[in-house]
Amino acid sequence: MHLLVLDVGNTRLKWGLYARAQRNAELLAGGAMLLEEVDQLSRVLAAQPRAERVIGCAVAGAVVTARVCAELDALGLRCNWISAQAAQCGLRNSYAVPSLLGADRWAAQLGARQRVPDQAAMVISVGTAVTVDCLSREGVFIGGIILPGFGLMLKALEMGTAGLRVPEGDIAEFPTNTSDALMTGGALAISGAARQMHARLQAREAGEVVVLLTGGAAPKLRDALGLPHQHVEHLVFEGLLCIAGNAQPQMDQST
């Protein structure tokens, strides 16, 4: 039973087609598109083996989500859109109002818990925004932070400072041009926040804290992070697989 998973973020829609709804299922196909291109989704998916179930998380807002649903409807599919729960797949949620935690953050944390079920973990997701979420060894999401991603940092500087519309640079030890200075500054700001959260979690938890790095812009941070870590490309998908594998049959076609 093929499962289609969707991650509708602030900038892009990511999709993956899995052979079945269970952890470690084979990823048969996958891709990504800008939100402006979601009207092409039905055409893209029609070229793939048909999915029997669809599960997804969306943080892009009601209008974009409705456009995605229309594309799925053209294929005779309906999506089970998830939201954060008080407890799910072996993880408890300490958010003040659990349902207000972003669905993509929750899915990524569930994916992390499946990977490291007996250790504390920190999930760094680098996209339009950056989130750093902390999981206890006992399986509790104990809190996290949100900060601007690379693009938002650059836009803020462009809006507030004349003459900073420059090509994307590289991370350098001592930047000697504006492009590299902007990229390195953003990377060090994000990595510095992540290292502070890691120190707090390490002081709280016994044993090793496993750091998982994910998100579309994760490669930009890898060399500057300064923490041992694992790069996981599809951590949100892994969380969605867990939810789908535990779902009751009557939930398969819910909206």
TrEMBL record:
ATP binds at residues 7-14, 128. Coiled coil: none annotated. The active site is at 104 (proton acceptor). This is Type III pantothenate kinase. Pfam families: Pan_kinase. InterPro entries: ATPase_NBD (IPR043129), Type_III_PanK (IPR004619). Catalyzes the phosphorylation of pantothenate (Pan), the first step in CoA biosynthesis. It is found in: Cytoplasm. One of its GO terms (cellular component) is cytoplasm. Belongs to the type III pantothenate kinase family. GO terms for molecular function: ATP binding; pantothenate kinase activity. A monovalent cation. Ammonium or potassium. The gene is coaX. It comes from the Bacteria. It catalyses: (R)-pantothenate + ATP = (R)-4'-phosphopantothenate + ADP + H(+). Keywords: ATP-binding, Coenzyme A biosynthesis, Cytoplasm, Kinase, Nucleotide-binding, Potassium, Transferase. Transmembrane segments: none annotated. GO terms for biological process: coenzyme A biosynthetic process.
